[in-house]
Every structure is written in C-alpha cells, then in structure tokens.
Write a structure and sequence with these properties.
Length: about 260
C-alpha cells in the first residue's frame, strides 16, 4: 500500500475502530457531554436574545431565527474538529493507540476511516441535540419554521465527514500539539466568522463574499437555512455538490497523509 493509492484498503476493522472510540466515550460520558449540553443554551441566550435585541436584519427576520442554521452547522463542526484533530493526534502520538491497532489485521485505512466515522457520529449527535433544543424553544423563539428541518439530521452526515477529514489531514501533518493553534486560527476561525452563521454573506464586501464561497461552512449553513425555513432554491444543489465533492477529496487526502505518517 502506498500513500497515493486511490482504492482504500477497508474491512470490518473500520467499524471496530469506530466501536472502540464509542466505548471509550461511553465510559467518559459524564465529562464528555457537559459542555455539549450547556453551551448551546448559553449561545442562544447571549447572541440570540442578548445581541439579537440590537441587531436588525434587512429581511425583517429575528436574529435568533437567523442564527439557528449557523448553530446547527458550527457546533457539529467543532465536535468533529476536536475529535479528529486533537483527539486523533493524541491517539496517534501520545497514546500510540493507532500503532497498537495496525499491529492487528486492521489496516491504516481502516483506522483513519473509523476515526472519521467516529468524528462524523459525534458531529451528527451534536446536530440532533442542537435541533432538539431549537424545537423545544420554538414556541417562544420561533427558531424552526418548517418540518423539513428534520432532514438536517441525515444530511449532517456529509459535513460530518468533511470536517472530520479536514481535521485528520492536519493531524497527519502536525508534529507537536502546539501546532494545532495554526489549524484553529488559520482554518477554523475563518470558517467560524466567514461561514454566514452570524451575518448575511450577501451584505459583505465583494472580496469577503468571494472568500466565503470557499469556506466549507458557508455551504453547510446555506443548506441548513433552506431546510429550517422551508424555502428551497436551486443553488442548494450546488451547495450540496460542493460539500460532497470536498468531503471526498479531503477523505482521500486524509488517507494519503496518514499512510505516509504511519507506514514507515
């Protein structure tokens, strides 16, 4: 197997790696999910109800409703990033978990695919929880306008793979934990601010709109906004295609990077 092999060497081992990460999380769930449960409420109260009192959108939409698709995209992104960037690096370099796994009849591709699947699972669980919070608060805040919003749950699989694969790519390059500050500041922060979660992209300067088009989170937010509001546009097919193709590209890059890193 070479780093540039195009066909993944996959087996049931991918599921076993996913299962291993799941079992570890279940043992640590009390500390793992405290932030997941509390943080969305804090953000909704601080940004949606606090800052939202001073923000007027040209569309007349309430700011807390505008914010909902962004929250559904951002929090799952963070779940995938922390699991497959920092988490994968720890398992690779500090705990040497991956070295132990590939000593069995499990391939490097199995390990990386299992890692990405687990990051995707964490991302989807996060999306389900955020959507549940939005639905529970809907009678007061009107955050969800259409039952089509439920389709965000299966759709969240694709961005989950994308953000997990992007994170694995950087983990394959990082040589020290401190280097992840570059990943967060140069990749995650621009997605956070220019992904259309906090303000309408159409009102930004031309150069910023061009930059936003290349930000993966932008296309995820646009897709989710359509399902949240029930207002669909043909451009959403382009958003979906962009996310799917980019997820496949980064999945291949993640495999290539980790093959080069793990196969000496």
């Amino acid at each position: 197997m070479t780093a540039i092999a195009t066909r993944p060497d996959l087996s049931i081992g991918s599921y076993r790696v996913w299962q291993r990460n799941r079992d570890v999380t279940f043992r640590l769930w009390r500390t793992e999910f405290i932030g997941v449960v509390v943080e969305p409420f804090i953000v909704i109260l601080a940004l949606g109800l606090g800052l939202g009192q001073f923000v007027e959108l040209s569309s007349g939409e309430e700011y807390v409703a505008f914010l909902t698709p962004g929250l559904l995209a951002m929090f799952p992104m963070f779940a995938a990033v922390f699991e497959c960037a920092w988490g994968s690096y720890v398992r690779l370099e500090m705990q040497h978990t991956n070295d132990a796994i590939v000593a069995t009849p499990v391939s490097v591709d199995d390990v990386i695919t299992g890692e990405i699947l687990w990051g995707t699972t964490r991302s989807m669980v996060n999306a389900v929880y955020i959507l549940l919070v939005a639905i529970l608060l809907n009678p007061w805040l009107h955050m969800v306008e259409s039952p089509w919003a439920l389709f965000i749950i299966p759709l969240s699989l694709v961005p989950g793979v994308l953000f997990s694969a992007i994170s694995i790519c950087f983990a394959s390059l990082a040589r020290a934990m401190s280097q992840f500050s570059y990943f967060f500041n140069l990749i995650i922060n621009p997605m956070f601010w220019f992904g259309g979660a906090f303000f309408p992209i159409g009102e930004l300067p031309g150069w910023a709109q061009t930059l936003a088009w290349f930000v993966p989170l932008t296309h995820v937010v646009e897709l989710y906004r359509g399902f949240i509001t029930g207002e669909f546009a043909w451009s959403m097919l382009g958003d979906l295609a962009w996310v799917v193709v980019t997820a496949l590209v980064f999945y291949w890059l993640a495999l290539a990077g980790m093959r080069r890193r793990m196969v000496q």
